[in-house]
Specification:
The structure is a homodimer. Chain A folds into 2 domains: 171 residues, MoaB/Mog-like domain (Molybdenum Cofactor Biosythetic Enzyme, Chain A, 3-Layer(aba) Sandwich); 85 residues, ACT domain (Alpha-Beta Plaits), CATH 3.30.70.260. The first copy, chain A, contains 8 helices and 12 strands. The longest helix of chain A is centred in the last third of the chain and has 21 residues. The two termini of chain A are 19 Å apart. Chains A and B meet through helix 1, strand 2, helix 2, helix 5 and helix 7 of A and helix 1, strand 2, helix 2, helix 5 and helix 7 of B.
């Protein structure tokens, strides 16, 4: 994922889009591999895209910078990276026109700022934006599918669900995930470390990670996350439960207490 | 900034550390140029570091992955990137020992998991962690200063304030920033775009960015941020005020209303 926007770099806006996309993909049994955040700047955007493309992801989602204002320059950055021009896309222009028409604003002129949102890199396809003006963009860059989405969370989410998730699901097949969070008290993370190492050795591919939550009334607090992803639901769930039982046993033997969160953190 | 941790990629943890560091630097008149987030994986960490170093930042802050558990592998990734070994650092080991002693845990053995937190890339210097166990790390990588900080927010913040901010301040000198947020109603972002473009032309170097906040009771809502950074306080403040006045005038002339937020968003 490439997130574009100075507001993310100056502590104006929390990157909840990366959080949401990561969560969504993880729950599908896939995974967000990397996030980069850059400023609204064509050179920075195209340089970041070159770097990401060199690592050959299957999918790349670019979020932010599709709007009508001068700082919205993501599509120009994508075009520069690909070495193609931006062109007025009739499909995108139709979507923008219908967006205003639906809101009873048919009389609104298609000013340059509005037409700007229909200027897509040559060879790309507009994606309908059911809740906002700027269409999303899909383009096939060799072995990598690239999607560009507006940064407004409600618009990003809507286009992601409608236009990206079906393609990701097709690529990964049906996967199951078991996620468990244990709340541990009275054990230090450094004391837990060898048990985690052993459990990871017994369960290769599993995810077991401790998150220290400070000391409360002199007692160390830890959240321990366990995740297993697999093709078969029962096997995946059983393995998750087995790891949780093993880890709980270790913690209790070393004098700590264990409580399972009814809603896991992942 | 390089943030390390699978929890940031699976929607388990919001990257509040990037938000905090970005905000802190912006308020000093500096700026976070780029954020990358990668998984707990030595290859991913070292590859990301190579990519970042190629863009020659003055400072690089690496956050997360300094703890005692097997997934904490940031310092090994840094060492691989630099082509140096990790070595037990006596200064770091002393800090870890004193941390346990201060908490009345002097009897706790320095197990391998605890000693691990003192294994630093050769040539680096430990930074005191006043609120947790794992020391921070500072190292001079040619023209770039690299800092590694634990991912636990309270620890990251404490080391950042004590050990990084003084060096950043020295590098940038005394800078002033004026940040203003205007709440606009009844104007579309696409109608505002030409006024922003003109204001940016009149005030090169200023930051003027609109954040759409949806439609409430049929009325478009926008937050407009204006920021100016400069060496002289009065000039910087005056320029910010001038831009705000110009933008408010434009919005009112086109039929919108303007309210200034007493606490700007930046």
């Amino acid at each position: 994922m490439l997130a574009v926007g100075k507001e993310l770099l100056i502590g104006r806006t929390l990157n909840t889009n990366a959080y949401w996309i990561g969560r969504r993909l993880a729950r599908m049994g896939s995974m967000l591999k990397e996030v980069t955040v850059v400023d609204d700047d064509i050179d920075e955007i195209s340089a970041a895209l070159r770097g990401i493309a060199a690592r050959s992801p299957e999918f790349l989602v670019v979020v932010g910078g599709l709007g009508p204002t001068p700082d919205d320059m993501t599509l120009k950055g994508v075009a520069r990276w690909l070495g193609v021009p931006v062109r007025r896309n009739p499909g995108a222009l139709g979507m923008i026109r219908r967006h205003y028409a639906k809101r009873g604003l048919a009389a609104m002129r298609l000013t340059p700022a509005r037409i700007k949102m229909s200027m897509l890199p040559a060879g790309s396809e507009p994606l309908p934006n059911p809740v906002g003006t700027a269409p999303g963009v899909r383009l096939d860059a060799g072995k990598m599918l690239v999607y560009c989405l507006p940064g407004v969370p409600v618009e990003m989410r809507s286009i992601f669900r409608n236009s990206i998730e079906p393609e990701v699901r097709k690529a990964i097949g049906k996967m199951h995930r078991k996620y468990i969070t244990l709340k541990l008290e009275g054990v230090f993370e450094s004391s837990l470390a060898p048990s985690i190492a052993q459990a990871l050795h017994r369960h290769p591919g599993a995810y077991i990670k401790s998150h220290p939550r400070g000391i409360r009334e002199g007692v160390s607090q830890i959240e321990l996350d366990i995740a297993v992803v697999g093709e078969e639901r029962k096997r995946t769930e059983d393995e998750g439960e087995r790891i949780a039982k093993e880890m709980a046993g270790e913690v209790e033997r070393s004098g700590g207490t264990v409580r399972r969160l009814s809603v896991p953190r992942g």
